[in-house]
Amino acid sequence: MQFHTVEKIGGTSMSDYVAVRDNIILKPVHNESIYNRVFVVSAYGGITNLLLEHKKNGTSGVYAEFANSLNDDSWMEAMEKLKQEIFSINQQLFKDKKTLNKANEFIGERLDDAERVLADLQRLCQHGHFALDMHLATVREMLASIGEAHSAWNTATLLKKDKINARYVDLTGWQTDKHMKLDERIDKAFAKIDLSKELPIVTGYAHSDDGLMSTFDRGYSEMTFSRIAVLTNANEAIIHKEFHLST
After folding, report:
1. Which structural domain, as residue segments, surrounds residue 107?
2. Number of domains in the chain
3. Which has more confidence, 124 or 108?
4. Rounded to an integer, what distance in angstroms lies between the CA atom of residue 90 and that of residue 153?
5. Which value, to the nearest 10 degrees, does the dihedral of the CA atoms of residues 206, 208, 213, 219 take?
6. Residue 86 lies in a domain
7. Is residue 76 part of a domain?
8. ∠239-244-246 over CA atoms, to 5°?
9. For residue 56, is it within any domain?
10. Over pLDDT 90: what percentage of the chain?
11. Residue 246 forms part of a structural domain
12. In this structure, are residues 43 and 203 in contact, taking their beta carbons and an 8 Å threshold?
């Protein structure tokens, strides 16, 4: 495989697409070509807080509300707040109606699926034979994956509109019928990608049969990033800092 890098972009940076495009995507560190690079992206700033809980002050997101509301629907209010923020981000990013509708449809399907799963699980666990605690780790993984799918799909789509051959790489395992090890999922996703001609935009969350969050919790994207670097034999792994988009 040719010289290539694996690069991670954090959530605060991801929230400014133009800055990411101009200061990172179009300014490769090692050569003139924008290809031979893999980008692992976090969710937009603040989205994972709304999905799970606020990382600093502990304010409940969808997950925290759901985990503590077996007999009420407070988590639905958190879900509605999340949807409003996600669709607001899309509105700011996509100026043409056709692409905006596609973006909303993509992430809207996942949000609706997640909402149905939570509602069904809540009803199930109101029966005495089913314990909510047994399912919370899976719920947390499912919700976390939505943020990275949102930002990665959007970024790949915007780059394509800017004439860059970006490719959305979804490691979230959404609606998968097979559980697999993290390394197997990464190998499978990259098997047919030509890094010399394509620019992979990869979800920072990756589903595995062990569950990344059970070990790394909110640090899961760093593990995804590092395993991609190892498995693709990257020459260098780069983390783009969120202050002034410096590297």
Report:
1. 5-240
2. 1
3. 108
4. 11
5. -40
6. yes
7. yes
8. 35
9. yes
10. 76
11. no
12. no
